[in-house]
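My hope is that you will study the record closing this message with an eye to the fold:
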Amino acid sequence: MISFAYGLMGLFGINKTGSENIVFESKSAGNSPNGIKTISVDIEGSVVNPGVYKLSQDSRIQDVFIAAGGLSAQADGDVCC
């Protein structure tokens, strides 16, 4: 019965977790001075240099990790699926 109640709360959005931290911004000035479209990525946590990085629009997640200096010594790099 308790599982059913939690399922209903999740279905109707009563228990919203984490979604408050996601912010979508729309800017018309999404281009760099040389005309290349860019995105801004805020990376936090166990990276060497957390912060906001501007990358080209076709960048991949590994590019922001490289820009942030890679994983810190405290990071858990052992990810299992």
Residues 24 and 40 are 11 Å apart (CA to CA). The radius of gyration is 18 Å. Confidence is low (pLDDT under 50) at residues 14-19.
